[in-house]
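task queued by scheduler; priority normal; single chain, no ligands, no partner chains; default sampling; output format set to structure tokens
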Amino acid sequence: MAPKRAAEVTLDEHVVTLNPVVGLSMEDLLKAATRVIQEGIRQPTVAAQHLLQLNAEIVRVLFGLSELEPAAKDRRFNSAAYRENPVFSRLVKSWLAWQGTVDDWVNNVGFEGEDLDRARFITALMTDALAPSNFLLSNPDALQRAVNTRGASLVSGMRNMLHDIRHNNGMPSQVDKSAFKVGGNLANTPGAVIHRDDIVELIQYQPQTDQVNVRPVLIVPPQINKFYVYDLSPEKSMVRFLLETGFQVFMVSWRNPVAEHRSWGMEDYVSSLDSAIDIARTLSGGNAVNVVGACAGGITLATALGYLAGINDLDKVASLTLMVNVLQPGTSDTVMGLFTSDETIEMARKRSAKAGVLDGNDTARVFNWMRPNDLIWNYVVSNYLMGESPPAFDILYWNNDTTRLPARLHSDFLDIFKDDLLTKQGQLVIKDVPIDLSKVNCPAFITGGTTDHITPWQACYRSTQLLGGENTYVLSTAGHIQSLINPPGSSKRKFFTNPDTPAVAEDWLKNADEQPGSWWPYWGTWLKGHCADTIAAPTEFGSEQYPELVDAPGTYVYE
């Protein structure tokens, strides 16, 4: 059977909406690998014992006596030839014997706790890289395809590989980028940029109902990704959903910084958000706005609201929505956490300070190695061995359209992560104002995804205990992006609600009610509960003070 194509792989297996505080490099992974090797060299007796066990199992494999079988869910070996052909069957069993021996050796060499988890991860990288399915001569499906196409698949695979070497930093392509165009079949909801400063463009969208809520929705995307994840194809667009529900919608589009912008820090981004909130209020006619942030954008937004609360100006925010966002990080929440230490954090800070920016491409490359079977070897097999073209998938296109962070902002994020600053009253200071999230007392709507491995739902839930207002938590049955881009219409979707927010996330889930479908309509109803009157929809973009500058999606999105 061929490897998983994009339609079969969950979006969460691809998405690189990383918390930008990570900033890990391949050097960090190589250091961990070196330590594993050094530990093995120090204990040759342990290695010798396991080699003897491996030799004994290989003998059983050769004589057809081995009972080793790949896991039923391991799609790499779904081909019937791996079970029925004696050569391919023995190849897989020999690899499984070696993989098991390496696992046993790591468990017995003396690692403990997170050191053991890191060692297991590093050795899994090595064994997975040498899986028989990753090579032409030991992949029966690839060989059969080469025969059926009279070698055309091999020619296509070589062409794909050369393209990736030249244009994709040597990594296998995950998406057919030629199938999409920002402002064409993506990010095409009518609107206009009505404000621009050095850091942000503010987009005002064209209303789609005759009457609109006077209090608008202002969306703040993560800085490490571009904004149009909220405005993909029309059927997946959160922006269109809000417009059709009767809201005025404004969108922040962050500029993609370069080295000369290295000095932009959290204070600069908070100032730009404060201005965007005021402009959205002025143009909508409302006295307050409903603000929305996701992932790292939620960190910036929460910090901005903490600043507004500190200067007694939070009245201009009617409600806060945080989607798949963690304000109180935990280093053990994800695989990334295994490699996040004081040393790696400081090294990440030094690298971005030297370069002037944290490059999203570098971050994405490391993230791919966090899930190599799904994000690397899967595409090596499909693109190179099978000679197939990468899939045309809008979210994967957006995911590969990475951005950069200025060095100062990256350093600020690192401080927030390392010292847990958002949970400590007054430890984070913005423009001489101590930040205290317990003073952010506007109503808050917080979401998580049951299978989210980037911002685990329990970590998202912690925000209900940090913010000082009436908090509502909703849990969607999906991963990071699937729970965010969750339009109505899918019969498979469901979500959980519970009006109470106890201290422990699992206690919340025990008493939660299951709801069918998408949580977007539920959220829309909640938003309307925090809106004032409706007014006639504006017929023009901007105003004399804030004139229309350029059609949506603006100019910063192309940088």
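post-processing summary
- Confidence is low (pLDDT under 50) at residues 1-21.
- The longest strand covers residues 317-323.
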